[in-house]
Amino acid sequence: MIHDVAVLGGGIAGAAAALRLAQGGVRPIWIALDRQDAFKPGEHLSAAAIPLLKRLGSDAMLRSEVHRHAHSTYSAWGSDLLIERNAIVQLEGPPTVLDRLAFEAALSAQAIAAGADRMDHDVIDFRIADGLWQIETAAGQVQTPFVFDATGRKAMVASKFARRFQADKLQCQYALFALSGETAPRPVTLIEAQEHGWWYMSVLADQRVVVNYYSDADLPGFGNAELEANAQLTTAIGAYLSDYGYSMCGTPKRIATNSSWIAPSIGAGWVAIGDAAAAFDPLSSHGMTTALWTAIEAADAFVAQDRNRMLAYAESVAKGVEDYLIAQQAVYRRETRWPGSPFWQRRTERAEQVTDAAV
């Protein structure tokens, strides 16, 4: 059987693309191994994503008690002083701190209910012959003339046919912390810059805390097992963890969070979406919004069989990357306390070198 279109990869981009294609009357074969068995970082959903969720008919899922509104975010960036950004002054409304696994599971269930045919397998291999993709899985071969690449930063398909650019080597060490005291924690998000990187902490709806540390993979750092001890040494985040009696409750892990993109983000018989198209620094809070937008726009162009619309999609992705690189540099330049730190030097000097490559 030859399928009209295949979506490769799970996550928000894959689920949103599968859902949008099904809503447009195209039943996609969606190949994605279900990995809903462990905590997944990346829980800060910008309010800019709400109109996109409304287009999918998915905005009601944000009302689940497993998520919370992020009314207060504090950052020590550029000085030791904690500055509050309160959602009450944001016209678009507050961001949402998600239970990421629950959110993705709900979006996936909606896509399947709409008609997406999910294969719970990884892609083993693929090739294209006579205008058809031959996609190998443990359950057999899938044939299709068109592929949505939602395989994250590795961009399984897109990276074989287009150039992949990388602006930095940012990585994240992260772990969950559990409350051991009896006092209910104040639900906040904290961001704290340090000499060799920056820290992020956010309280989830179930009162657990996620703590992330961001630095470059090639710079001297500390092992995952030392994450808790180093978190306790920070000023604001360390005080919060200590005041409420938080201690690490899961195994620390490490993932790539570098800024990277594919150019162009479309090709003969394929389109890249989500992190496969453009993956941004978590400081931007653009990741999940970009995943939703790219999935919707690319799916709508495919359903309409409109080549000009698909070309416009690729141009928008390239322009978005260019704008992001400029904005990223502006944010990092606000931190001037460690002029001799390689981490901060790279982010204030590199943007001019990579902006031209965005297109």
Question: Key features?
Answer:
six-stranded mixed sheet; 359 residues; alpha+beta; globular; 10 helices; eight-stranded mixed sheet
Question: What do these coordinates show?
Answer:
The chain is of the alpha+beta class and 359 residues long. It has helices spanning 11-23, 50-56, 100-114, 158-161, 227-232, 236-244, 287-304, 307-332, 342-349, 351-355, and strands at residues 6-8, 29-31, 44-45, 68-69, 72-76, 83-86, 96-97, 117-119, 123-129, 132-137, 140-144, 147-149, 163-166, 170-179, 189-194, 197-203, 209-216, 246-248, 253-256, 260-263, 266-267, 270-272, 278-279. Strands 5, 6, 14, 15, 16, 17, 18 and 19 form an eight-stranded mixed sheet that branches. It has a six-stranded mixed sheet with strand order 8-2-1-12-22-21.
Uncertain spans, ≥5 residues at pLDDT below 50?
354-359
Per DSSP, what share of the residues sits in E-state strands of 2 or more residues? Answer: 25-35%
Share of helical residues: 25-40%
From the alpha carbons, calculate the radius of gyration and give it in angstroms: 21 Å
